[in-house]
Structure formats: C-alpha cells, structure tokens
Design goal:
- It is a single chain.
- The protein is an alpha/beta fold.
- Helix content is 23%, strand content 19%.
- The chain contains 10 helices and 20 strands.
- The chain has helices at residues 3-12, 30-34, 61-74, 110-115, 118-149, 168-175, 270-286, 363-369, 454-457, 490-500, and strands at residues 44-50, 78-82, 153-156, 213-215, 226-231, 234-240, 247-254, 300-304, 315-318, 326-327, 336-339, 372-377, 385-389, 394-395, 407-408, 412-416, 425-426, 433-440, 448-453, 467-468.
- The strands form 5 sheets. It has an 8-stranded mixed β-sheet, covered by helices on one side.
- The longest helix has 32 residues, at 118-149.
- The chain is globular and about 65 Å long.
- It starts with a helix and ends with a helix.
Length: 501
C-alpha cells in the first residue's frame, strides 16, 4: 500500500472534529443537555478516553491543557478514564502506600500491626486522611475542566490507583463527590468505605433491581440515565437511539484487576467476568423494546485498563534486529514483534511489549461469545494501535435500520491508547494523547477513532516533567515499579556504574 493510500485510509477513519460554538453556554456534552446518553440528531455519539494520567496531587499543567483542548475540540458525550489516574507510588503517599493489595501499608510496621497501639493507629489514620486529601486534589484537577464544560465522566481503575493506600471503592467514593461522575452508588449491602462487594451483579435479570439497574444522581449530569452496577469500577451504561425508544449499544467499564500473587498482572474478578457475560442480554431485557425476541442482546464496547493476551494477535513475530521490533512481555519475553499492518490501521505504533496478565482469565472468550464489538485498553503508555481480530459468533443487530448488515460481525475491534498524562513515562511529550471514539447510528458497531495528540492540539509542552520511554531500567523512577521491558545492555550498565562512582 502506497503512502498516499495509507494517508487516505487514515483520513477516512478519522471523525471530523468541530470546535465548540462561541457564546454557547450550554453543556458541551449533547447527552448532558438531554439528561441521558443518547445519539444526537446528527446521528453521532462521542466518547473521549483518557488513559494512564498517573500523577500525584499536583497534576502536570500540560496534562490539564491536553484535557481542556480535547474537550473543546470534540465536545464528547462522556469522558472515560481507563485506570491509573492516581500514581499510588507518589511520595505524597509515603505513609500509606502499598505495593500490593495484600501487603501492609508503608506506615504500618510489623510491630505496630501486632500491638495495634492507639497512638500508632491514630498516626496512621491521620496519614490516611492526608492521602484522601491528596487523592481528592488529583481528581479535582482532572475533572475541573469537565465540570466547567458540563461533561459527564466515568472512571475505572488500574494497578497503581490503590497503591496510594485507599481501596478502589474508597477512591470511587471520592470521585462521586465531584459533579459529572456517573459511577453508580452501591445497590445493595453496606455502602461504607472499603465495601468493594456491596454492589449487585446482573444476576438472574428477573427484575431491574436484581439486575443492578439503577438511576443516576442529578449531579452526574445524566439524571435520566440508567446504569447496570456491579463492583467499584465495573458497571455498564446503555446508549439510546435518537428518539430514545431503545438501547442501541452499551458502554461497559471493567475493573481489569491489578497484580497476581503468582507474579505479573492480575485479572478481573469472577464477579466482574460474570457481569461482563450477562450485561448485554440484561440491557435488552430492560430496554423499552423488550418484545423484540429476534434481538436478544445489546451489542457492547468495553473499556478497561489492562489489555488482554489476544492483543498479541494484532502483532506478528519479527527478528530481534528488525526495524521497530519490540520484545514481548513475560510469557511473550524472548520473542520480538512488530505491528501486523494487515490487521491494524495506518498511524498505529508499537512502543513496548503488550503488558497483559500471564493467565488468560477467559475474558476474550466472553467478548467473542456475548455480543461485544470492541475493547479499548490503556496501561502500555507507549502503545497506540487499532486493529480487528476475527470472532466466531453471530451478533444480533440492535435495530435493522441502524446497521448496514445485521447479524454477522466482521471481528472484534481492539484499541490500545497511550498515556494522556505528563507525570509518567511514555512517548515524546508531543505525542501524549487523548482518544476520541465516534459512533454513527448508521453503523454503530464500527466506530471511528483518532488520537488527539498534544503537539497538534496545544503545541509545545511547557513543562519538562514528562520523560520519554527509557531504553534501560535505570531511566524510570525507583518508586514507580514499572517493568519497561527493555533489559539494560552491558554498555548501559557500565555507564550507570561509572556515574555512581
């Protein structure tokens, strides 16, 4: 394929971006104006994904500029944060940080834990209060641009958020303090801090209550929106057609886990996977068009932090010295890969190995078998690619008039998004980006997507905080704990040793 053909193909997949109208003080989000997630009269619906902002209490000004510019350029219906908003290893959390969920916080020594003295307990509680304040400060800076523009937002979690010392449930409660957050409150059990299992799963779908089908608060900007609730960071949002007569598609946020006790990254909980399998049919059961038996499910797209192992299907093996070859991660270590240009869109790039869990949780099989047409993940700060892999099942169209060819779906779209933040490793600063995903009512299960790069939207970054992806492990902060995959060479080790002399 020639460069001209590649450019034409890339342009065809890019949604048109129009700036907001001057003097229009209504919410930028059309869905916020309507009070529910819904396709516009124009037939469009837009999602803006922000991945791996990963910063401390003082968020980089360039990160905020990227968020503001992306919102003004795209006017999204909703913004989805796909995990690692909080750099849990930041020095601000030194007294409460923990590397793993099952490990003790930094401020609790074995002696303190055994004695449980009131004085030590009070000191730790005070440290937790400071951590809550710091997390609140981070969230406030990230969502202030959204609140100023009247845009709803949703959040799931990654492998660094909890490291600050708060559980995902506690962080989610802090998020819900801010206007526009659509994360649902627990639908059952106790709702106190740390109650990660208080929300219902879809269950038997005998009723809206059993299905965890709840109404959002007015502060979410979507008072007429219903949501399926599961666990903190795991829930689903139906998107209605233009006339609000039926659900066309679903947006599913999935907490993809953090770390595995056996090493490497973890997987979604059993409850979250069960929810993932059941929610497309639950959406149809609760849709206003329940009687359409030929349409048993609402097709869905899932947003999460970790990529699944099957992202490697978009790559092809290459020699270690091949141009742009990247070594795989853990189970895929020792092998090198490049993007498969036959499966990925022009403009895609691979900057690090796909850092997926060692164990296959069965999530991909669920996506294949239960009416999912796309998945979008972050986590790998220096990867940005979009491709499609074949699927082996039939999917019913939500509406014969809204799909060009109801029934058979060509494959599962798989999206990898780079970091949107300037507080962590990633590509060169100008290529830090948000991702726009635009749906069209005429073909709702074939969304178009493009990266909104800082260099194009804003220009030259003002801060020197961001650092590019290092080729050696010495280039990362000791506190971050991220495996950058590239092993140091003997020459880099020698240079490091000489610098320490």
């Amino acid at each position: 394929m020639t460069e001209l053909q590649n450019a034409a193909k890339a342009a065809a997949t890019r949604p048109r971006i129009q700036p907001a109208e001057e003097g229009d003080d209504r919410p930028l989000s059309v869905s916020a104006r309507l009070g529910r997630l819904q396709f516009h009269q124009s037939g469009k619906f837009r999602v803006l994904q922000l991945a791996d902002i990963q910063d401390g209490p003082k968020v980089s000004k360039d990160t905020v500029k990227l968020i503001e510019a992306s919102l003004d350029a795209t006017r999204p219906d909703i913004v989805i944060f796909t995990g690692n908003q909080i750099a849990g290893y930041d020095p601000a959390y030194a007294q409460t940080t923990r590397k793993r969920r099952w490990s003790a916080a930094a401020g609790i020594s074995s002696k303190t834990a055994s004695s449980k003295s009131s004085e030590a307990s009070e000191r730790f509680e005070a440290a937790l209060e400071r951590t809550c304040a710091s997390v609140r400060a981070t969230v406030e800076q990230l969502v202030r641009p959204l609140a100023d523009r009247g845009i709803p937002w949703a959040v799931t979690f990654g492998n660094h958020d909890f490291q600050c010392g708060l559980s995902n449930a506690e962080i989610e409660i802090i998020c819900r303090e801010f206007p526009g957050c659509v994360n649902p409150e627990p639908t059952g059990g106790e709702s106190g801090l740390g109650d990660a299992n208080s929300a219902n799963s879809v269950g038997s779908m005998d009723s809206a209550e059993d299905a965890g089908f709840v109404q959002l608060r007015a502060e979410s900007y979507l008072p007429n929106q219903r949501v399926f609730a599961c666990e903190p960071g795991t829930f689903a949002l139906p998107v209605a057609d233009v006339d609000h007569t039926m659900s066309v598609l679903g947006l599913v946020l999935l907490d993809s886990g953090d770390y595995a006790r056996s090493g490497g990254y973890g997987s979604p909980s059993a409850e979250a996977l069960r929810f993932l399998a059941e929610v497309p049919k639950a959406m149809r059961a609760q849709s206003q068009e329940i009687g359409r038996s030929q349409e048993p499910a609402v097709p869905c797209m899932v947003f999460q932090h970790f990529p699944v192992q099957q992202y490697y299907q978009l790559l092809k093996p290459a020699a270690a010295n091949a141009a742009r070859a990247i070594e795989g991660y853990r189970n895929f270590a020792g092998k090198h890969y490049v993007l498969d240009e036959e499966k990925t869109l022009p403009g895609s790039y691979l900057g690090e190995g796909v850092s997926c869990p060692d164990a296959d949780s069965g999530e991909f099989a669920i996506l294949e078998q239960h009416d999912y047409f796309a998945i979008s993940a972050g986590h790998d700060h220096r990867n940005a690619f979009v491709g499609t892999v074949p699927v082996s099942r039939e999917m019913a169209s939500a509406d014969a008039q809204t799909a060009a060819s109801p029934g058979k779906v060509g494959g599962l779209m798989m999206i990898a998004s780079p970091t949107s933040g300037f507080g962590s490793y990633g590509p060169v600063p100008q290529k830090r980006a948000a991702r726009l995903i635009e749906f069209d009512i005429r073909h709702p299960y074939e969304p178009r997507t493009q990266l909104l790069e800082y260099g194009e939207l804003v220009g030259k970054p003002s801060a020197g905080k961001a650092y590019a992806y290092g080729m050696t492990s010495e280039s990362k902060p000791e506190s971050e704990g991220v495996d950058l995959l590239h092993r140091p060479t003997w020459w880099s080790k020698l240079l490091t040793w000489l610098r320490k002399k």
